Structure formats: structure tokens, C-alpha cells
Amino acid sequence: MSKKDEMKVPRLGKQLPRYRFFLNPYRHERFSRCPQCSNKTGQRKLPLFIHIDPNQPFLLNKTCRYCSHCDLLIAHQNEVERLILTAVPTLDEETVRGHYLVVGTLDRADWKRIIQNDSPVEATIEALHDFKDAVVFTPVGGWGR
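Above: the chain's sequence. Below: its structure in C-alpha cell form.
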């Protein structure tokens, strides 16, 4: 995507976009290697900003897989859904599945300040880094580039 095209993409967060993001729907694939470049992935613990329908923002401090070569952040869908259900017991599994969007990340200092001060969602939006891009990988006769 060119710089000109990037500027046209509507952004929710007020900070610069970070990371390419993949929400991994494959329960048994953990991506110890990057699905794009096959380099080893590391781990990165980040506060994720998640929008749950209808109109419910949610912050989740989550360890994700990360490929520094591709700038690709991978969160596992089943783990995200389980953590949402644990943190918000009033929601049921059907309400959560498919009715949320992982929007971006926050810096750890901003996340701590927002959590400690019980800040309004506007403060979270001010500190939010949208994702540069959301990507999808599908297995084609096994995982390959």
C-alpha cells in the first residue's frame, strides 16, 4: 500500500498505525514460524483494543506471536474469545463469536493510565494505534508462502 493510499484509509486511533495483524482462526496452528516468511516468531505482550458489538470497548493485555521481519502480529482467535468471556461473564459464547473486532494496540504506559484512572473511551481512542493492515492466511495443501 502506498503512502497516498494509507492516508485514505479511515483510522479510529489518533496515534500512528502499528503492525500488520492476523487473527488466527486455526485452533491447532500456533505459528511458531511466520506464515509469510517462515522465520521464527517471537512473543509480544500488548494491550489490545477490542470493540465488542453492540458498542462495548474492551482492553485485553494479551501475549501474541510476532514476526519482526514482517511486522506481523498474530493473536489466536480461540484465546481472545476465551479471555473476553472470562473477563465479561455477562456475555455468552454466541454473542462474542464473530461480534467483535480487534482494532489496534496501546502503549503499555497509556494502558496502565487508562486502567488505573478508569478513563472514558475517548482517552483510549487518543492513545490507540490502529493496525496498518489486517491480513488473512489460508492453508493450501499445507502451510506455504
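Helices lie at 3-8, 77-87, 93-96, 108-117, 121-127.
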